[in-house]
Every structure is written in C-alpha cells, then in structure tokens.
Design goal:
alpha/beta, seven-stranded parallel sheet, 29 helices, 21 strands, binds adenosine-5'-diphosphate, binds magnesium ion
C-alpha cells in the first residue's frame, strides 16, 4: 500500500484522518457518539479490560433495566409462530452454567429469524448486549446485539485461534457495541505501518526501558494473542503518557526558569516589618521556614514558581500576605486569586483586619507606608468596580484580590510582581497563565492548596512547580472530633441538634451542610452547590461495577430514590425544632446574590445568626474562629477530601470542634468506610492516601487542573509512581539537552495533541 504524500510531509497525518473517510459514514457515526472522530482517537480508545474467551459472566448479578454485555453459552434456540399476534418469535436460552438468560427476537415472518437460528447453535459461546428486562419472572434481552466467539473467522483453524484470544472489551454504547468498535479498530489499524505512526518516545528511551514501539504497542493492545501481549502494550502506552506530560512540564519549567523577573528584595522598615511587629501571634516554625524560602526567591531575578500546600488551618494566608507585603515594599503589586466570591470577599476582610491602618493607604489615618487592598469580583457594582480598577491600574492598591474577574482584559496593573492563587484545585493552568500575562515581566507565582497532594500527583499535575509544605497547625487549636450519626436513629439525630444548641448557648456557631439547595435541585452534591464544583462525586465511588461495561448503560450507578436533604428544607425544619427554639437560622448557597451571601456570612460571623445552613460553598477557606460545630447531612454523598475540607471550617479558634456526619450508609459499604476513616483520623496526608485509593483518576487530578490531566487514560497516579518517576527522569534529561525539543518532532506533536486545550498558550509564549 502506498503512503499518501501528506503522511510523508507531515508525520502522523494518518492519525488525523477523519474516521468517516476511513470507515465510511455509517460505521463512523456511532463512533462519533463515543467522541471518536479521527484514526488517532480510535487507536487511542483502549480496551477497558480483556475477557477470557472461556469465562462466562455470572448471570446472577444482572439487574433489571441495566444495559449489559454478557458472555454466555447458547443452550437452545427455538422458533415458533405466534398465533395470537401473528408473526414469529425466536427464543434462545443462554447460560453461565448455573443461571439462564432468555434472548427474544420477533419478526413478521419465520424466515426472517433464520439467520439467528443458524447462528445461535447450542454449545456456542458469545457476547450478548442489551437492556435486561423481566418477562414472567425470567430475565431477558429483547433483540440483543451479539457476537459469537470464533464463528465469524474464515476457516476452522483461524476460528480456533480466534476463539482462544483474549477479547478486548471497549468502552462502548448501544449503537457501537464493543465488538463493533473492535472491528473498526482492526480495519483502521491493520494497514498502518511504523511510518504512519511516528513514535513520541525516542528510541534511546525505549531501549533503556525495554518498551515496544508505538505501532507494535497498538497492535498488542488492540489485537493480542495472549495476556502478556496486551500487558506489554499497555506498559509502553502508559509510559508514553507519563513521558509526554513530563516532557512538557520539564519544558515549561526550563522556559520559566530562563525568563527574567523583577527582583523584589526585602526592604526593611516598611510594611512587612510593621506587619510583623503587630502580628498578634508568633509564626510557627514552618511558617517562618517557608517564609524565608519565599523571601529569597522573590529577591531573585527569575520568577518564583512555588506550590504551598498545608492542612486546612495551617496558616497559609499569613505566609502569602507576608510575601505580598515584601513585593509591595519593593514597589510592586500582588494579586490574590480566589475561587469564589465569598472567599475573595473574606480574603479582603482578613487582609484588612490583619493589616489594620497599614491598609488605609490614601485614607485619613493611614500610615505613610500604608497601601490599599482592592477587591474585584464579577458581580460588584459599576462604581465600586471602576474605583477598584483604578486602584489596580494606578498602583495605589498594593494588593488586589479577586475571582475570575481578575482575568478579564479590563483589569490592569501598574506593576504586577506576584500572583498568589488560593486553592489551586479550582483553577486551571490556563487561568494562572492569563493572570501572569498581565505583567510586563513574568511575575512571581505562589500557588496554595489545602488538599494534601501525594508526591506522585504533585509530580504529575504540578511538575513545573517547586513544593513547600506547612505540616504543623498553629498552637492553641483544640482540633476537631468527628462522629458518624446514623440518619435513621431519631434519638441520635435529636442529640446532634441539642449539641448545636449547647454550642450556640456557649457563644459558638454551627454550620449545617446539605448536598442540595432546595428540593428541586436535582444536581445535588454532584456540583457542590455553588460556583465551586464538587471535587468528588460520591456516587461514583459507590456505583457498583455492573456486569460487562459499567459505561455501557446510561443510568448505571444513577441516584437512588432517596431524597437528599436541601438547604431550604432543612433551614425551615430547624427553625421549627424545639431544640433550637429562638435560635436564628441563616442560609447560604450559590443561588443567592453576592450581597445576600455576604450578609449571611457577616451575620454568622458576628453571631447575630449563629446557625448557618449551607451547601459546600463554605468548603474552601471560610474562616470563622467561633464556629465550633458542624453537622453534615447526607454525609455519605460527599468524598473524603471534601468532608475533610469542610470540617476544617470548625475548631479554628481555641474551642474544640465537633463534626457530626449524619448518614444512612449501611455497614460495610464504601461510603460507611469513608466516614469511619474520617472519624478515625484527622491527618490530611493519611486521608489523601486513602482517598486516592478510592477515587477515579479524573477526580484525583481534577479536570480543571490542566488539559494534561484529562488526557491521561492509562496512567494512574495511585499505582504508577515508578513509571512517573522514570518518565520524569528521562524527560528531564532530554529537555536539558534540547530545551525546545527541536530534534523530537513526534514528541512535540504528541504534546500538542495531549495538551490540546493549552496549545494556544504555549504558542503565545514560544
Ligand atoms: P489556611 O492554611 O487554611 O488558609 P489560614 O491562613 O486561614 O489557614 O489560618 C487559619 C487561622 O489561623 C487564621 O485565623 C489565622 O489568623 C490563624 N493563624 C495563622 N498563623 C497562626 C499562628 N502562627 N499562630 C496562631 N494562629 C495563626
Ligand atoms: Mg486559606
């Protein structure tokens, strides 16, 4: 077969070919519904598992209404005329050895059923796909799509071989069942050669790690003859994913390290010194240590690129503020990017409170070295916005705090020297870069996260950042005790509300967290109740692995019938509870206007409304030291990290915190295990490790984190630590020798492909 010209001119062009052209519209259409549009898409659509030809599916586990793919053996098939309705019916029985499943086909004429009759011979095995229904107590599939093992080969010898090969099971759909995907993959892959598939992995790396070439690996994965083959193929493709990502991270790191930044050395006798003098507490050893690392990097001529991770309440804000003040003292400005409006507003309050008259620059009473803290959010009024924009552009505001609104074109800085991103997991790399682009020279960057990040994740997601960690919690905290309260135990639940009452009577505050805003809010915990998306879908964790492909059926693992508690409902209920008689109960959720939210939080902070019923909008960073108790309803709906973040909102003052997780998770379920783990430990790093073991990859990395993360198909940061470390070492070596990868076009192409969403950004900066 001759290679088309464009493949010679542009290596990898075959990968971009539309499937409609290669396979024809009819075969391509169902694939497009799976998101597969090009040859490359299809070849990178890897099997989710492999089925042994001889192994039958346990039919006992079939659930009515589920879309399933089962491997079973034909026991009998009979065709009969239907006298009452007219027409004919074929009924086949397939078995897993102990249980049966009926397959039913209807037709107008008996003859139309002959194909099935001839194929569904007793003793043959096959895969059958359809939606399970119940007919007179019998499980059945009506008009199932099916594929018989070894039957469709050309001759008997080939059939025998075919029948013994592992069967790739693809993520599939009703219109594109797994064997049809398999057939398309073969059609597309078989004619391709090494020349059509330029390998992003350099020969030297493949040799060192003993890895297959790309063409070979794709063959092994899609058309294996035994288990070793597909394993070897997957090893290679997994390494490739890690390597491509690490190569890009190394390239970014190298680029930024070469860039110039304005040095912002510490100036004595100004804001930072005055601030330190007034600080009402002493910095922890960790805060001091990280502080001096930051101080030194800010004073350097290359941009700082640092990730600061620290437990909830470990005092990251003060550390960041001190860095910002150093920059302001040196004549620059700092921007603080927060994920929600509530948080941005709170940051402004906190900074102003910490700074006192140091934040009254331009106002009467401000000291001669004072500055201003400006706030920019999407929803603020035109007048306020104009004034804040002016403060930022003129340089009058040394510190500018904001949400995504900070990223818009209208926001300008006089001299942006430092960008601080709070709670990174809500911000993408792209957004971080947009903000950095607002400075004449690359500003210094500090990213903060309260979610402890295991090393492998840090290497994968933040590979271009250096990491610092705050491990200790400031002294004087009494910590949080966590208990699980069974939702169906009325006495315990009543006791929980009494505890809330007791805390309120003592001057404390209570959060009550619900998964939904109101009873009509269908999305519930799924989206976390606010502009900040939930970082974990608890129901994903519990979705039982159905028979065949869980992804086969829509609705698999859908919400159970149980009604989730909502903010509106629960607030009304609490106002009527005798235990809370006379206690004002407030509400906070994402559908309230910014002023309303602000007011609710202010009332809560001041103690005018000591009970706040809320969605997870309070999950990140809200700081009310008097908050001592938190009741989480439907706690089994939330993930470990999310609950850990949530309870970090209490016990921040000197009084101990109490967290009550109300849930109806039966013993032994994953949800019950998660809650028990939370009750047993408060070590964020330990929880992160447990969480990592339970989560799906996409959730770990967070789709918003970077285009890179969502491109990972095979790599599991939970499991592939060694692969990541090896790939990183090899990638760094390559980039050290050739920073722009000029000698590695296939690798560059793979980077562009894998990081498609970010491509423009790279080009801008190149
Ligand atoms: P986080 O790391 O979760 O962002 P914060 O910076 O909000 O934590 O700090 C939590 C609380 O601890 C704040 O009220 C802050 O003022 C206080 N804090 C910070 N550092 C110290 C310290 N060294 N000693 C006592 N309290 C501190
Ligand atoms: Mg914080």
């Amino acid at each position: 077969m001759s290679v088309p010209d464009d493949a010679v001119v542009r290596p990898g062009a075959r990968m971009d070919e539309p499937l409609a052209r290669v396979l024809g519209e009819r075969s391509a259409a169902p694939l497009a519904k799976l998101g597969l549009r090009t040859t490359g898409d299809l070849l990178r659509h890897y099997p989710r598992r492999y089925s042994e030809p001889g192994t039958l599916t346990d039919l006992a586990s079939l659930a009515i209404g589920e879309h399933v793919t089962v491997m079973a053996q034909v026991q009998q098939a009979t065709v009969r005329e239907m006298r009452s309705r007219g027409g004919a019916m074929l009924q086949a029985v397939v078995t897993d050895g102990s249980r049966n499943l009926h397959l039913t086909f209807f037709a107008k004429r008996r003859g139309a059923l002959r194909v099935h009759e001839q194929r569904l011979l007793p003793g043959r095995t096959g895969m059958f796909t359809g939606v399970v229904s119940d007919y007179r107590g019998q499980r059945q599939l009506t008009h199932p799509d099916y594929q018989l093992v070894g039957v469709d080969a050309d001759d008997e010898a080939a059939a025998l071989v075919e029948a013994s090969r592992p069967i790739p099971i693809y993520p599939a759909s009703a219109s594109a069942p797994t064997w049809r995907v398999q057939r398309c993959v073969r059609t597309v892959l078989d004619p391709l050669t090494d020349a059509d598939l330029p390998d992003p992995l350099p020969e030297q790396v493949r040799a060192r790690r003993g890895l297959a070439g790309l063409r070979e690996a794709l063959g092994l994965v899609h058309e294996p003859y035994d288990d070793d083959q597909w394993r070897r193929g997957l090893d290679r493709l997994r390494f490739e994913e890690a390597f491509v990502l690490q190569a890009e991270l190394a390239r970014r790191r190298a680029r930024t390290a070469q860039q110039e930044a304005v040095a912002r050395p510490r100036v004595s006798g100004r804001l930072l010194d005055l601030f330190d003098e007034r600080l009402p507490f002493t910095l922890t050893a960790g805060q001091r240590e990280v502080g001096s690392v930051l101080a030194e990097e800010l004073a350097g001529a290359h941009p700082m690129q640092r990730l600061l991770q620290g437990e909830v309440g470990s005092g990251k804000t003060v550390v960041a503020l001190r860095a910002m003040l150093q920059v302001v003292d040196a004549g620059g400005q700092a921007a603080l990017l927060a994920p929600t409006e509530v948080l941005a507003a709170q940051h402004v309050r906190t900074l102003r409170a910490l700074l006192g008259d140091l934040a009254e620059g331009g106002f009467l009473g401000g000291t001669d070295v004072s500055t201003r803290v400006a706030l920019l959010t999407g929803s603020q009024g035109a007048a306020a916005r104009r004034e804040n924009l002016l403060d930022a552009a003129s340089g009058r505001a040394g510190i500018v705090v904001g949400t995504h609104a900070l990223l818009t074109d209208t926001v300008q800085f006089a001299d942006l020297g430092l960008v601080v991103v709070d709670e990174q997991h809500r911000f993408g790399v792209e957004q971080r870069d947009l903000l950095r682009a607002k400075a004449a020279q690359t500003p210094h960057l500090l990213v903060m996260t309260a979610t402890p990040i295991p090393r492998t994740v840090a290497m994968t997601v933040f590979g271009d950042l250096e990491t610092s960690t705050l491990r200790e919690i400031p002294a004087g905290r009494s910590g949080v005790t966590t208990h699980v309260v069974p939702a169906d135990n009325a006495a315990w639940v009543e006791r929980a509300w009494q505890r809330v009452r007791e805390e309120v009577d003592r001057g404390g505050r209570a959060y009550v967290v619900c998964p939904r805003i109101d009873p009509d809010d269908v999305r519930g915990a799924r989206r976390g109740g606010d502009d900040d998306g939930a970082d974990l879908l608890a129901e994903d964790l519990d979705a039982g692995v159905g028979i065949g492909d869980p992804a086969d059926g829509p609705g698999a693992g859908g919400l159970p019938a149980r009604q989730l508690r909502s903010v509106v409902e629960v607030a009304a209920e609490l106002r009527a509870r005798p235990a809370l008689a006379g206690v004002p109960v407030g509400e906070l959720h994402g559908r309230m206007g910014p002023d309303e939210k602000e007011r609710a939080l202010a009332d809560f902070t001041a103690g005018r409304v000591p009970v706040l019923v809320s969605t997870t909008v309070i999950e990140v960073g809200v700081d009310v030291p008097e908050a001592t108790v938190m009741v989480v309803l439907d706690a089994d709906r939330f993930g470990i990290s999310q609950l850990h973040q949530l309870r970090g909102r209490i016990g921040r003052g000197s009084a101990p915190g109490l967290c009550l997780l109300v849930a109806s998770a039966p013993d032994g379920t994953p949800a019950a295990t998660r809650l028990a783990t939370l009750a047993a430990t408060s070590d964020g790093f330990e929880l992160a490790a447990v969480d990592l073991g339970l989560r799906r990859e996409g959730d770990v990395l967070g789709a918003a984190q970077s285009g890179a993360a969502s491109s990972l198909r095979l790599l599991r940061v939970t499991r592939d630590a060694q692969v990541i470390a090896d790939a990183r070492a090899d990638a760094r070596e390559l980039v050290d020798a050739d920073p722009e990868l000029t000698g590695w076009p296939a690798l560059r192409a793979a980077i562009d492909q894998q990081l498609a969403g970010e491509r423009e950004e790279f080009l801008d900066r190149a």
